[in-house]
Amino acid sequence: MVNIPSTDKKRVVIAGCGFAGLTLARKMKKSGYQVVIIDKHNYHQFPPLFYQVASAGLEADSILFPLRKIFQNYKDYYIRKAEVKSVDSSKNQMNTSAGIIDYDFLVLAFGATNSFFGSKEMEEHARGMKTIAEVLDLRNSFLLNLENSLTSKNEEERNMHLNIVIIGAGPSGVEIAGALSEMNKYILPKDYPELKDSRVQIYLVEAAGRVLNVMSSKSSEKAQGFLEDYGVKVMTNTKALGCDEKSVTLSTGEKISTSLIIWTAGIKGNHIDGLAPDSYARNGRIVVDRFNQVKDHENIFALGDIAIMTEEKYPNGHPQVAQVAIQQAELLSENIKRKLANKPLKEFKYRDLGTMATVGKNLAVVELPYIHFHGIFAWFVWMFVHLMSIIGVRNRFLIFLNWAWKYITYDQSTRILLRPKGCA
Ligand SMILES: Cc1cc2nc3c(=O)[nH]c(=O)nc-3n(C[C@H](O)[C@H](O)[C@H](O)COP(=O)(O)OP(=O)(O)OC[C@H]3O[C@@H](n4cnc5c(N)ncnc54)[C@H](O)[C@@H]3O)c2cc1C
Q1: Which ligand 1 atom sits closest to the C-alpha of 85?
Q2: How far apart are CA 387 and CA 423, in angstroms?
Q3: Of 340, 362, 389, which one is at a domain's C-terminal end?
Q4: Which of 100, 157, 184, 344 is deepest in the core (most CB within 10 A)?
Q5: pTM greater than 0.90
Q6: What string of DSSP letters covers 330-390?
Q7: Which residue has a Cα nearest atom 48 of ligand 1?
Q8: What helix, strand, coil percent values describe the chain, rounded to 5?
């Protein structure tokens, strides 16, 4: 049993402290419940800026926030760094890597991970962008490939190190393609003048007919135009069929030589055992009702990316984005308090606040509920929204400073290749 003081208050255990878990935990302050936060990391992370860390534009610690600092002034809050393994709902207990934890209410908010659609070779060779560890690994591989390109034995090997294949052209794929190609245009010629005749070539592979499939076709066209101006080779209606450590094979019959494959094409829910069999849906998401209550479990809730809830407007579930996670958490905090007061619960209804993606300096597409725009104004809106969403004055200041510096100088400061002990 994990050591957590028992009090006469009912205990809410929040498993996962991403957008959903963090919002819920903050809103539960002074709720009359004891709050226990479980996360496998000791920090909260901000995935919308992962691509900037991956492309050496930001240091990782400017988008990570220590959980203990966030909850310093919260009374009757307990944080345990542990990995959730399973639930025993008959005993109101959760099994974690640190031991068993009792709960009165359990909230599952542990998000999603990469889905490689069953391809073992993709899982082995492609790099995902779902955690900061994956993102740092990606950044290091990119920087290492640049170094290796200079010591390649022949042109074929050099091209393999300089080709990058990004699979999936949703917002994450488009943003990482934009950031890497911007670096290729403005920074690499200065850092690697010897490579002047052979630059990095980025391929963006998408099975659907257009990039940014979640946005309007006008925004897709604009984003594709921005990317192509930067030299990205956009390949729509194309599937990646297989890969090894030196190449990717496409449905067009083409084989691209590469030692860096970036995977942004699919996600699936992080899995735990122990829920009723029909609580699990396609893609590993957990089925919830309009109160985020897990099917067949009265005191277990699921929020954010891991949950699948249908509404008239979203018959296949909500998009797996931060706003859904935040809005669900806000309502659940209210509903859990309503439970204590024996009041009826409120149903969730998603308010879509809009979608945006950026390709590079002065280049972004923004779709708000009543207005769509693109270009420099969209880029400033994108920056403002992301800056305001960052937790902590220090981190906001660091990111602002970094962006301002980059805007003026076209340079970025974090091209340091750091590898674990034993790796070259
Ligand atoms: C690269 C990238 C870019 C994105 N860009 C955007 C964007 O621009 N706008 C947008 O709206 N959305 C974006 N998203 C999606 C957005 O990040 C997610 O929708 C959101 O993070 C979901 O919140 P969540 O709380 O459900 O899960 P997460 O934020 O993923 O949080 C899950 C938490 O659970 C923890 N955890 C996981 N497994 C376990 C376990 N077994 N035990 C204990 N703890 C566990 C993790 O450490 C993490 O803290 C992006 C996602 C990615 C990956």
Answers
A1: 41
A2: 35
A3: 340
A4: 184
A5: yes
A6: HHHHHHHHHHHTTPPPPPP------EEEEEETTEEEEEETTEEEESHHHHHHHHHHHHHHS
A7: 18
A8: 35, 25, 40
Cα separation, 397 vs 71, in Å, equals 21
What is the model's pLDDT at position 241?
A: 96
Signed CA dihedral, 302, 305, 308, 311: sign only: positive
| Counted domains in the chain | 2
* Residues 56 and 96 occupy one common structural domain: yes
By DSSP bridging, strand 255-257 and strand 247-250 are: antiparallel
**271 pLDDT above the threshold of 90:** yes
pLDDT at 415: 85
Which atom of ligand 1 sits closest to the CA of residue 386?
8
Give the CATH number for residue 240. Answer: 3.50.50.100
- With H, G, I as helix, E, B as strand and everything else as coil, classify residue 30: coil
Distance in angstroms (rounded) separating the CA atoms of residues 114 and 135: 13
Residue nearest atom 3 in ligand 1 by C-alpha distance: 48
Residue 243 exposed, middle or buried by CB count within 10 Å (0-12, 13-18, 19+): buried
Pocket test for ligand 1, best of 14, 38, 39, 65 (most atoms within 8 A of CB): 39
Q: For residue 390, what are the CA distances in angstroms to 90, 177, 221?
A: 39, 23, 29
Domain that holds residue 188: 120-265
Does 144 share its domain with 261?
A: yes
Question: How many whole angstroms separate alpha carbon 61 and alpha carbon 49?
Answer: 11
Confidence at 218, pLDDT banded by 50, 70, 90: very high
> Residue 309 above 90 pLDDT?
yes
Distance (angstroms) between ligand 1 centre and the Cα of 305 equals: 7
Neighbours of 340 (CB within 10 A): 13
CA distance 180 to 337: 46
C-beta separation of 188 from 339 below 8 A: no
Q: Specify the residue for token string 């959730």.
A: 84
